[in-house]
Amino acid sequence: MDARSERASRLPSTCADLNVSFEFFPPKTPAMEAKLWQSIERLAPLAPAFVSVTYGAGGSTRERTHATVTRILRETALHPAAHLTCVGATREDVDAIVRGYGEEGVRHIVALRGDPVEGAGCAYTPHPGGYANSAELVAGIRDLGDFEISVAAYPEKHPDSPSPAADIEMLKRKVDAGADRAITQFFFDNDGFEDYLERVRAAGIAIPIVPGIVPVHDFNRIARFAGNCGASMPDWLAHRFEGLADDPATRQLVAAAVAAEQVLDLVDRGITDFHFYTMNRADLVYAICHLLGMRPVKPAPRPQEAAA
Ligand code: FAD
User: Fold this and answer.
1) pTM higher than 0.85 for the full model?
2) Pocket flag, ligand 1, residue 57 (CB < 6 Å)
3) Which residue numbers are catalytic?
4) What are the backbone dihedrals phi and psi of residue 20, each rounded to the nearest 5 degrees, phi first?
5) Domains of the chain in sequence order
6) What DSSP letter does each residue of 58-85 carry, written as one string?
7) Which candidate, 263, 266, 293, places its Cα nearest to that of 277?
8) What pLDDT sits at residue 14?
9) How far is CA 133 from the centre of its chain?
10) Is 160 near ligand 1, meaning CB less than 6 Å away?
11) Does the beta carbon of 134 sit less than 6 angstroms from any atom of ligand 1?
C-alpha cells in the first residue's frame, strides 16, 4: 500500500469520528455581514460540533458578538459559542452578559482574559472589580449556570507567562475552575504541539485540547498575529509563500496545501478534534474538511421550523 492509501485508510471512516468547530468574528459592515452568512451557510452542512464568535479586543464588539451569536441560534441549527473576555468590565457587567446568554439559550462560552486595551504585549491590568484572569472568569460562569466552557491554551506558551510550565499551571487552574475544553492558539509545528500535549497530560489535565488551525490566506497578516500572540512562523512556511505577494490564486492553493498537510499529519498522530480560525471565509476550511473525509449532511431543521 502506498503512503497515501495508507493515510486514507487511517482517516476516520465517517464524519461522526471527527469533531470540527469553526470560529468567526462579528461583522462590522453589511457587506461583511453578507460574507459571514455565506460562509456560515457553506460550512453549516458539515455539522460542526459548534461555531464560535469572537469578542473584539477590549470588549469592543460586545453588541455585535451578541447579535451574531443570537442570530446563529435563531436562524440555524448550529450550536453557537460566545467568546467573552474580562477586559474593561466589572464582574457585574460580565455576569449580566453571561446571564443574558443563558436566558437566550446560548449554552457555550469561550472564556478568556483578553488582551490589554492598549494592545497585546502591554502589561495587563485587571479592571478594578473585574475578573483578574480567565480562571476567575471560568469559576464565575460556573456559578451562573450550566454552561459548556472552553478556554484558550498556548502550545508555545502565552507571552505573559514566565515559563512553559507556568503556562500549563495556568491552564490547570482554568480546568480546576470548571473548563470543559481548551482550544489552542494557532501553531505550525506539529511536533511542538504533540510535546505540549504530553506535558499537559503529565500535569494531570484530562480535558480535550483542540488544535486551533489557521489557513494562511495572507502570510503577512498571519505573521503579524503571530508576533502579537507569541506563535512562531517557521522559515519553511515563509519559504512556501515567498514571491506570491502579487499572485493570490497561487497563494490560495499553497495555503490549502499547507493547512491540509498540517491537519492530515495531526490525524496521523491520533487527533480527531479541530478548531478552524475561518477569518469568515469558507473556501479553504471547506476544502480541508473535505480532505478529512467530511461530507455535507442534510441540515437539521431550524428551531422555528421544528416548532412549526
Ligand atoms: P489567561 O489564561 O487568564 O492568562 C494568559 C496567560 O497569562 C496564562 O497562560 C499565563 O501564562 C499568564 N497569566 C495570567 N495570569 C496569571 C497569573 N495570575 N499567574 C501566572 N500566570 C498568569 N481575545 C479577545 O479579545 N477576544 C476573543 O474572542 C479571543 N478569542 C480567543 C480564542 C482562542 C482560542 C485563543 C487561543 C485566544 C483568544 N483571544 C481572544 C486572545 C486572548 O484573549 C489573549 O491571548 C489574552 O492575552 C489571554 O487570554 P487567556 O484567556 O488565555 O488568559
Assistant:
1) yes
2) yes
3) 23
4) -115, 150
5) 3-307 (3.20.20.220)
6) GGTTHHHHHHHHHHHHHHSS--EEEEEE
7) 263
8) 46
9) 19
10) yes
11) yes
